[in-house]
Known about the structure:
The structure is a homodimer.
Chain A: E1 5-6, E2 16-17, E3 21-24, H1 26-29, E4 38-46, E5 60-64, E6 76-79, E7 83-87, E8 92-96, E9 106-107, E10 118-120, H2 128-136, E11 149-153, E12 159-160, E13 173-174, H3 177-187, E14 191-195, H4 202-215, E15 218-222, H5 232-240, E16 242-246, E17 250-251, E18 257-261, E19 264-269, H6 273-291, E20 301-306, E21 310-311, E22 317-326, E23 332-336, H7 345-349, E24 352-356, E25 362-363, E26 368-373, E27 383-387, H8 391-397, E28 403-406, H9 410-419, E29 424-427, H10 429-433, E30 438-451, E31 471-474, H11 479-494, H12 499-504, E32 512-513, H13 518-524, E33 530-534, H14 535-541, E34 544-557, H15 565-581, E35 588-589
Parallel strand pairs in A: 4-5, 11-14, 11-15, 12-13, 15-19, 17-22, 20-23, 27-28, 27-29, 31-32, 31-33
Antiparallel strand pairs in A: 1-10, 2-9, 3-5, 3-6, 4-8, 7-8, 16-18, 18-19, 20-26, 21-25, 22-23, 22-24, 24-26, 29-34, 30-33, 30-34, 30-35
Helix pairs in contact in A: 3-6, 4-5, 8-15
Amino acid sequence: MAERVDAGIDVPGFDRSTKDGYAVRARDTFDASEGDPVELSLVGTIEAGDPPDITVSTGEAVSIATGASIPRGADAVVPVERTTRESDEEDDIVSIRTGVAPGDNVMYSGEDVAVGDRAVGPGTVLTPRDVGLLAALGVESVPVVERPTVGIVSTGDELVRPGEPIDDERGQIYDLNTYATAAAVRAAGGRPEIFAHVEDDYDRMFDTLESAGERCDLVLSSGSTSASASDVLYRVIEDHGTLDLHGVAVKPGRPTIVGHIAETPYVGLPGNPVSALSIFRSFVASAIREAAGRPSESAPTLDGRMAAPKRYSEGRTYLLPVAVIEDADGDILVYPVDKGSGAITSLTEADGVVEMPPETEYLEAGGSVTVDLFSADTRPPTVLGIGESDPLFNRLLDRIDGPRYLPHGSREGRRRLRDGVPDFALLAEADAAAVSGETIGRFSREWGFIVSPGNPEGVAEPVDLLDVESFCNLSEASGLRSAFDSTLETIAEERDTTRAELAGGIDGYGWAVSGIRSPARRVAEGEATAGLGLRYAATELDVDFVPIGTQTLSVVAADERVEKEGMRRLRTVLETDSGELAPSMAGYDVSTD
Amino acid sequence: MAERVDAGIDVPGFDRSTKDGYAVRARDTFDASEGDPVELSLVGTIEAGDPPDITVSTGEAVSIATGASIPRGADAVVPVERTTRESDEEDDIVSIRTGVAPGDNVMYSGEDVAVGDRAVGPGTVLTPRDVGLLAALGVESVPVVERPTVGIVSTGDELVRPGEPIDDERGQIYDLNTYATAAAVRAAGGRPEIFAHVEDDYDRMFDTLESAGERCDLVLSSGSTSASASDVLYRVIEDHGTLDLHGVAVKPGRPTIVGHIAETPYVGLPGNPVSALSIFRSFVASAIREAAGRPSESAPTLDGRMAAPKRYSEGRTYLLPVAVIEDADGDILVYPVDKGSGAITSLTEADGVVEMPPETEYLEAGGSVTVDLFSADTRPPTVLGIGESDPLFNRLLDRIDGPRYLPHGSREGRRRLRDGVPDFALLAEADAAAVSGETIGRFSREWGFIVSPGNPEGVAEPVDLLDVESFCNLSEASGLRSAFDSTLETIAEERDTTRAELAGGIDGYGWAVSGIRSPARRVAEGEATAGLGLRYAATELDVDFVPIGTQTLSVVAADERVEKEGMRRLRTVLETDSGELAPSMAGYDVSTD
């Protein structure tokens, strides 16, 4: 609410009955009692909304409904349950079995709300109750605080708008920050306005920034904030705006710019997505919330304790990106996620930041911290898993509400499960054997080599890879790569050589990509002639498959978390849904034991 | 999200540099060290977004920016800070002062996100982070769960749409429940559709309900749910729909109807506004949230302890309407607010309900309870005050964020302050003297009689009221009425009579209205010839004023609450703002001591 709204009318606007019963002159009932009722003649009926055009005289009563207007002459209402109605041919008579005083069961005009009463104060965030009160006062519209318009200027020649085609050859990427920032602006109560991406041309950047400054209450951008010659945006602000400060004493804050453009406040956020959201959260969101009239305490936070220690000593405040998970007791565990290098997955893995002041060099494991969440909608995941990337498991996750699964590979899953962070890990055989924990589910997948349709190079067994033109491998993080390497190891032993020697002879062995389906895709697109992968991926992409082995993946739960609600749900899904899904997915089998 | 969205592209889509530096063949740097750098010839520069149309051969390097595409031939990046650039007329040479391995400072295609990776799962409530991830994957639009359409049918001949004129004579009131329910539906994630108010005519009601049922996913109404002949809505449901149940075993739930109309679920909520919101909160909101794909745990609650005991023993669950306030330690105190009789102010005074199961006959003071809030936006007020209604104080409240003030009169303020519920009370002299607490502010207001312009009846002192045609009094809850009665008492003593005798001679003494400005308004509108009131009200309404006395109002704080932040703010406002506002308000004085 931008202003206070007072009541402009009395509520009720008339003397109304608060009971179903009979409107009477109280004086007529003074002698009435259960044993000795008083009889009054019924002279009419008034329903809610009826004009009360009846007058009640001495010895008379009017039947009246809750909410109806008290007729002239009457000054009280006798509840229906304290009366008896008797009618005969000639008269309508009501027996009153209790005395009432003037005003009994009557709400006088203005008794609920009187003209001039304070109804809704300035700054109120309107709830359904307030809407109800305003409606009851006959108010159709109210003055509200206008949402601030926040211009978001996209910068960077390499950025492409989602939905448009991208040219990998030119090193283009989709524009993430503009849209994440717009969503964050909206969540804080602002109205984002995205300014079409312009090439990093000085004059066009100036035009864009100037028009954003003229049309908006605040202008934001991300990236291009270094003072280097290539950062056109920085130079435009320096030449045509006001550069109030460059860099704040927090990490990540060095690339932050605060200034003015066309007399409108301007903030240049860092280019790294997590840094941009952290700086937005710490320095920008509260200004938008205040301008939008939102209460300041609405910045979302969550209290928890550190799952792992964190050391830091750069002498400035660190906005440490973290994620949260509930432990077995429902307490919040907080763990750092800082992948650096602008990885977008660090954005989806982080829930917020923990502010480490300059003098805090160490956060100990188990210590209490407050997480400043990136948004109010953030909830701890119901389950947190880390491990092997797998298509069947991805589909099983759809059957669970709010899971978080990090497909960082089997080896990483084993390591993190040991550190006590995730609820479970999805592990290949060797890793599953090397950790303690309860196996709550298991399935197998067939793996081998993906080859072009018709298998023109005639690949039949691993040694045939020595003759393929171009092999595409999986990265070492993958459990499937481990299975492949073990196979090579065995063959090398048989041939009295080393795995490295053998691998060195495979053209492309070192071309290791991350996604479990990626080598298959390279083969399908003609970029490789053979690749490591799953039968499922080959079927999906309609390329040929040379089976080599079967790998069992185990879902290993941390012992102390098996009873979490989300984990019980996962167990059910593994027991029932995996058997339902697997038959429709080539190469999968759940009857593993 | 209605469905899972998987990554459709690799991110990055190309091998990219994660540092500013030089793209090289790692093999060329194996011997490099700080003491013995390796010199490479610089053959080009690649910025982010540039096509990498340079090939790096043995002995060569290319200057590369973070995010730029690794050129052919290169397999690693040396960070700029481990290099020295030397140019002369003929050659561009870069000295490499460290060795790098293949892959160093390179993020391979698909390393961040690979095609087919699970990006956002079904049921996810999209946060700015998810929007960022989807943008990075080039996704322009996603399948989301459609908000359910909830039809709200307004019933009751006496109801008028806010904004339209109201006829008090006919006992009309503004339609509150339709709009409060619509706001609650929206807060739960539904899309409310209000069906125009129809008169309580059987055929028209049937048409309205049928079209609501055909167009909506759920139909709601409020009131008119008794089985009596006058409740047309009930009869229409019974004749043309399915009446699944009538009445639920909770208080307030007796009037609740659950059924179907045109095969669409239908819920008839009680007519009392607080009851309607309680039943909506308990039985309807979760269904709307689920249909809208909202997480079930998002129903807002607040934990606190009872400020006062509550006894109840009707053998069914009681959804006790309550309000909340923070005590001095920031803990939540919960107190019942149950005014009954359909008062709309009970709606604005209640924050939610506490569920008392049938077997709980008693909630003890200090006992822990969970409040089911009416909406997620509900915050405890920063200060809670009860007491005299006053125009100056109303304006002062505008200077405080989120106060709650209940103008129930000085006497009620004294009583409640004693019970330990409010932070402060605004009290007339006698009440202020009778309670303990710290007086944090004080001001005086001039009172007397409001008379028609020109004072045609020549009112000059209280006894002149014996001769006026029609006097309008204030109700006994008002501290101003107490001042008036004290004056009459004194006069009665002087005249050797009783106050009652004296008052009995004043025509209209018993016509007592609630609002502090209401008698003045009655005089201004010609309904009364004289009325009790403030000089301020007379000036505001441009009628004449006969001064009788000056009343001091004190803001008395509960001792244990004076240090609450909201109370410190109130004290400041009283000390500074009241002195600023009072001179512009006739009859007020803040220099009271």
